[in-house]
Amino acid sequence: MEGDDVEEALEDLPPSSKFIYKTLDRSGPMTLKGLTQETLLSSRTARYGLDQLEEAGLLESSPALHDGRQTCYRLGTDTDDETGDQQTLVTAEWVRDRLEEFERDDPDLCLVEADDEYDRGHVPSAVQVDIMADLVDVDGCGLADRETFERYLGERGITEDSTVVIYSVEENQYAAYLYWLFKYYRHTDVRLLDGGKHGWEETGYPMTTDEPSVTPREYVAQPADDRIRAYRTDIEAALARDVAIVDVRSSAEFRGERASPPGELPEARTAGHIPGTVHLQWSEVIDDDGQFRDQSDLEQLFRERGVTPDMETIVYCHVGERSALVWFVLSELLDHRHVANYDGSWIEWGNLVDAPVETDPDGQ
Fold this sequence. Notes:
Elements: H1 3-11, H2 15-27, E1 30-31, H3 32-39, H4 43-55, E2 59-63, E3 71-75, E4 89-90, H5 92-96, H6 99-102, E5 109-113, E6 127-128, H7 131-135, E7 136-137, E8 142-143, H8 146-155, E9 163-167, H9 173-184, E10 190-193, H10 196-202, E11 229-230, H11 232-238, E12 244-247, H12 251-255, E13 278-279, H13 295-304, E14 313-316, H14 321-333, E15 339-342, H15 345-349
Parallel strand pairs: 4-10, 5-6, 5-9, 9-10, 11-15, 12-13, 12-14, 14-15
Antiparallel strand pairs: 1-3, 2-3, 7-8
């Protein structure tokens, strides 16, 4: 339904329907409970407004990921590409062609490196957002709250209306984690540089150690989108439901031979995996050039594991960054509609007392 048709359909609806429509348009899909909390409407009034929107063809509904007994409502006018030309992936050539625009200290277009190797050299005009050090509490399995997120990004010249392009070292997993965090706070236009920092360097494009001068600005985040974030309680509930839980760690971690990945991340108390988990190593979504594999290859990869677009899916790793990369593939490249990242991941589950754990010494 086009804009004029929407306005015409809304004109004859009650005020509650119009209020709910504007709320969903601003904040994205919500359950009835979320709507009553956001709008302060009574449940009866909110339900009546929703019914009227549904009859007018302006509303879609589906089971909520975190509780299949609840319904999640979204605007029937929502599209996957609200800006018309919005992309989720950009190439190194795309960034190179816009370097002058990135260098203007203009909040419309911002380039971000999302790791701790910024000082050794970065793409010109990129600012640093060290997500693992500054926006994630590994030991506490927590993410930056809304105020911290707003302050941190505003200090780097980013606003909620910015087009943000993110990259990082290794397989771009830290960039994907930051991308997921942006989407958690409902940032509209955020993109990944396919191939990340390695791909940029391999092309021979310029690098610098100079930090750009940016003007601090105000960032106003939207309410968090808990549809794309899984908590421990969601995992516990999923064990009794038809939900795909995908472990994207290495085979050694999955089998229980390691309690953490190589590196500096803390070990969990136990090793193994969540019972009934599908195992798909995160690096399998990346090709030999460090870029995402072709869509047909990715579709086959998940189809072979029994993970289909209509399934509710939760992905996890050790602290959430590798699983964010797989979340990106499922949600943004393959259009799976009900995918959540369990950012607590194994560092939380493996430290719980009496949480069910399986090992698979003879498995993958």
